[in-house]
Amino acid sequence: MSQNKSITRYLGLIYQAGKVRLGFLIMACALAGIAVSPSSDLNGLEIFALAVYVLIASSTSGAFNQWYERDIDAIMERTKDRPFVTKELPPTNAWTVWLMLISLLALYATYKVSNLEAAIYLFAGIFTYGIVYTIWLKRRTWMNIVIGGLSGSFAVLVGSAATGNTFAMGPLILSIVLFLWTPPHFWALAIGYKEDYAKAKIPMLPVVVGDRVTSQAIFWHTLILVILSLSLVFYGMGWIYFIFALSGGGYFLYCSFLLLREQSKSLARKTFFSSIFHLGLLLLGTMFDAMIFD
User: Does 2 map to a domain?
Assistant: First the structure.
């Protein structure tokens, strides 16, 4: 019984270290990329396999992020209990080898189930989050999350590339929407944990320019991305998608407007969660719309 508990605990630590919840979101982005593509020859089994490979690849880059950032995670209240910080998962260099091997296997499997182009976009997503964001930018510039947001955009392109429709307008627009969504999502979180980021010397936007300017950036990013997301109805999406996108986008925009009027931690948290609600509805909307009108 205790061995089962030990295994369960270890799997829970792996789940936490790999940011698997974020991985499911990235996986959903890839599925949405398939859904907004004008055509697809992928069967159900191939789509499922591709989704699993994207999830695995995303989780390896998430685990590398936590392994590499364990020093600053130990400083921040929000992240001090992560497994590599507490050393429940020993932060040895062997992790980098295993994570690289698993990533390469996921990339090869993606190539086999779809095509080389999809595998290249998946590699671009891993590299952007694991290297560009985590190592090169996060500790150096407030642009960290702006450029790091490309990882979600690449996930959409993985899905569209797998269908052979990379440069169709629908997937391109959705990838831009994901690029615009990431900064206000994280900036809202950063307002709530500004003291943490300042203590760890991470130049997130609220630390650099203050809450007022950050709330303005959040609002204008949100306005543009909501308008752009609704434009997908002109490129293959139907009324189901429109209702989902309008509902989630309207709520996100409303919360960001409240934050614009009054900068507070409670409104920042509300805006952060509204961004998750918005993206969830947006991605579900693409999939439901595609299933019903396909």
Answer: no
List phi, psi (to 5°) of 200.
Answer: -85, 0
* Domains contained in the chain, number: 1
* Residue 81 belongs to some domain of the structure: yes
Q: Where in the sequence is the domain holding 268, given as residue range(s)?
A: 7-293
On whether the pTM is more than 0.70, the answer is: yes
Is a pLDDT exceeding 90 seen at residue 207? yes
- CA-based nearest residue to 171, from 41, 39, 48: 39
Q: Closest by alpha carbon to 182, among 157, 150, 158? A: 150
pLDDT, tens digit, for every residue of 229-245? 999 999 989 999 999 99
Type of residue at 254 = Y
